[in-house]
Amino acid sequence: MKRTLTALTLAAMTALPAFAQDEEKTLFFYNWTDYYPVELLAKFEAETGIKVILDGFDSNDTLLAKLQSGGAAYDVIVPSDYVIPGMIKDGLLMKIDTPSMENYVHMKDAFKNPDFDPTHEYTAPYLWGVTGLAYDSAAVGGAEIEHSWKELFEPRPEFEGKIAELDTASDVILAASLYLGIPQCTESNDDAKRILELLEAQAPKLKMYSSDSTVDRMASGEVAMYHVWNGATARATAQRDTIRFIYPKEGTPMFRDNFAVPANAPHPENAKIFINWMMAPENAAAVSNAIAYANAIKSDEFLDPKWRAMDAINMPEEYAPRLVPTMDCGPAARELRDRIWTRLKG
Amino acid sequence: MNIRRFPLTREISLLVLVYLYVPVVVLVGYSFNANRTATVWSHASLDWYGRILANPTIQSAAKNSLVLALCAATAATVIALLAALATSRAFPGRGGVEAVLNTPLILPEIVVAVATLMLFVALGVQLGLGAMILAHTAFCIPFAYLPIRARLEGMNQSFGEAAQDLYANRFRCFRRVTLPLLWPGIMAGFTLAFVTSLDDFLTSFFLSGPGTTTLPVYIFSSIKAGITPEINAISTVMLVISVLLVSLSFFLGRLRR
Amino acid sequence: MTGNPALRRLGLLTPALATIALLIGLPLILLIWISLLQKGGSSGVDWNAAPSLGNYIRLAWEEDFDGTMILNTSYLVILLRSVLQAALTTGLSLLFGLPVALWMAGLSRGQRDLMLLLITIPFWTNLLVRNYAWLIILREDGWLAQAVGSVSPIGPIPLLYNDLAVAIGLTYSFLPFMILPLYTVFEKFDWRLLEAAHDLGASRSRALRRVLIPIAMPGIAAGSLLVFIPCLGAFVTPALLGGGKTLMLGNIIQMQFGASRNWPFGAALAVVLLALMLIVMVAMAIWRNRRVR
């Protein structure tokens, strides 16, 4: 009896740490909503035995709020480039040392030393895209329009009353700044005044401000011009082939979304397995094919020819110099942005 | 001439019913739309219902919403019923008590949601279903309380008094006399609370944790590209479930009478 | 159960009062405190800031882009617009809700229950999805717009992205919150009172005005409150159906807790909204008391 008890105790003592080391086969994945094909999660589970529980967020601000609250423990998150330095500084991310991962070799060289995480200590690239200008070429008889923000802010008569502008202050004010040659995140009152004047002149020519149903509004022909993301444009183009996308020459804001692991992640080992798995070319391409955004992995051979033919997804090399990384504005710039927006729509 | 029939009320009511149901018909109709773009009709198809079956995210969101609404509305209705019984007769400070009970109504939801998030974080409460049930119960209380209270206000107290005069004890009197008379108010209160919780976005948005995304949170964060018929399909499924639930509770309510 | 009515009352009230105090009252105190702080850090609140009224002053006065202090009417305009929109919606809900509740009260028990069911069913679907349905119904190449266009003497009328669309959407969202409390009152109304008034020679409309409306007052008050207040904070419907050209109170509060990351200012806006609601409620209470006396 006593021996049994000792054996049991011993077994319990040895079993406990072993149990703690062997992570539960679960992964809490927190990504932008509709930014990951659910079918791929089933494939991941089949190959690794890890069950992924997917939750969605709508903006970097929401992600930040959840992370800073400390009350919600996710394993893999998808922050955009510009919020990452702040997250690292606040100690919100865990080091994952991406270059040590097996599939790191598949990463395109252009993505290897990003400004926001120079040695990929904390992040691995997911998808990237731009915020540019989409228009329906049928509205101008199939003609090309100028690759400039001018077409949005001082539209030609064919587009007047048929334009949708994004309903987010940051996107609209950034585009206006690029058009006017004003630095991103300006804190100058004079600049703010010029931006407001431009936007006030533009407002009567707009049909609406809207950040929702972007694909639907273009595909159904409800609007003929949209200040919008390239991926949404591509999805709309797949339904209405007269839609074109332009990368404005004054500067086209770019966003690079990345995988990262929160400092309080309950299953960090599973997170690393997932991130490595996502860098495999066929898996990266499966995401791009479903979501219509380009990835950072050498996977072009697996890319759907439908997307490969579109400028919106497969950006022509000569536009690369136009890309402008988005910055995380400081409190003063954010307040100025707020004041412009409130005046515009007050 | 019947004094209880007012001219035009019937016509207006039928018009209101049309107004209420046209969007529902559109919503259900477009769930059978083959086109991915929710606003463009191409041809009929059941694809989107198939997609729900293959989408664990949307399924768990729907399940989370139902569990949350059921727990929060039940808790809120019980709490509100007790409070309504206590405030049915005048006492010093009744006005103040009622004002306190109704505060969730006069607070903008975003404010309470953010403030609750900060409080929970300060107290170390784990975000997730538990946190959401607590917060939802609190803001559902007035939705349950008001109809019960309104029902009690004009209810003839003399029935209860008569029953007590006839030596029914207080509990028996409550169960046999007050409760049946109060039942429509309780059902209205529960329904309001349930609908309010089921449709809540902001509080759940701030308080949801890993694996506890609710349907409204899922829908609201997926509107950037546009609502897909998949969302119409899951809404239709939820509608059918809810109608069954409500019909059941009404049926039970009538049995009790 | 105890025989002491005061003690019994306290027991019945404790769960409700405790829940509200802990989950509403405590956060609210935190909120008022935050509204006196300053924005800061990445989380949105500088917890070490000295309390000040700066956020409240900013609501009406601000430094212009050229450096002078000016009266900023933007927030006042937004406030006024939100109040008008909410009042319009409450009015419309009452206009349509009252006849429906009256008609329902006159039905047989079974029919009444069926009507209750019919009125609540549409609200078992998500607010956004319902608004989306309106988007489809009101769109400019939709059947409704074409039908209106073919009978209207001035040609097609835009149904979407204007105040009318927002009013239709908001009324749709909150109508049952008006009908249900009204119905609850009418349902237990003793109709013999009305018959008596009528028999005593009061005209139908007079009987209605002098007997029915006073009795309906608690229902009207509860319904109006339930419609007006969520309306005041609404931002999804206005953004979706109104085309997003103007801001509502809900939008700017939401903005402060989102992209602007200025929680203290958001909290101040919320406290102002709260004060406004309190004024409305106190006014309503005084008015009701005067009527009773």
TrEMBL record, chain A:
Superkingdom of the organism of origin: Bacteria
Pfam families: SBP_bac_8 (PF13416)
One GO molecular-function entry: polyamine binding
InterPro entries named among the record's database cross-references: SBP, Sperm_putr-bd
GO biological process terms on file: polyamine transport
Main subcellular location: periplasm
One GO CC term on file: periplasmic space
Annotated positions binding spermidine: Y82
Signal peptide stretch: 1-20
Location(s), subcellular: Periplasm
Alphabetic keyword roster: Periplasm, Signal, Transport
Summary of the function given for this chain in its UniProt record: Required for the activity of the bacterial periplasmic transport system of putrescine.
Similarity remark: Belongs to the bacterial solute-binding protein PotD/PotF family.
Protein name: Putrescine-binding periplasmic protein
From TrEMBL, chain B:
Pfam families from the UniProt entry: BPD_transp_1
PROSITE patterns in alphabetical order: ABC_TM1
Bilayer disposition of the protein: Multi-pass membrane protein
Protein name according to UniProt: Spermidine/putrescine transport system permease protein PotC
Residue stretches making up the ABC transmembrane type-1 domain: 62-252
Record-level GO BP terms: transmembrane transport
Function: Required for the activity of the bacterial periplasmic transport system of putrescine and spermidine.
Keyword Magnesium: no
Domain of life (superkingdom): Bacteria
Bilayer-crossing regions: 12-32, 66-87, 99-123, 129-148, 177-195, 233-252
Localization in the cell: Cell inner membrane; Cell membrane
InterPro entries recorded: Bact_Polyamine_Transport (IPR051789), MetI-like (IPR000515), MetI-like_sf (IPR035906)
Coiled-coil annotated residue ranges, if any: none
Keywords of the record: Cell inner membrane, Cell membrane, Membrane, Transmembrane, Transmembrane helix, Transport
Family from the record: Belongs to the binding-protein-dependent transport system permease family. CysTW subfamily.
Keyword Cell membrane in annotation: yes
Any one of the GO CC terms: plasma membrane
Matches recorded under SUPFAM superfamilies: MetI-like
UniProtKB/TrEMBL annotation, chain C:
Keywords from the named record: Cell membrane, Membrane, Transmembrane, Transmembrane helix, Transport
InterPro entries per UniProt: MetI-like (IPR000515), MetI-like_sf (IPR035906)
GO cellular component, one term: plasma membrane
Residue spans crossing the bilayer: 12-36, 75-102, 114-137, 164-186, 211-241, 265-287
Subcellular location as annotated: Cell membrane
Domain ABC transmembrane type-1: 79-284
Similarity section: Belongs to the binding-protein-dependent transport system permease family. CysTW subfamily.
Name of the protein described by the UniProt record: ABC transporter permease
Native source species: Paragemmobacter kunshanensis
Source species taxonomy: Bacteria, Pseudomonadati, Pseudomonadota, Alphaproteobacteria, Rhodobacterales
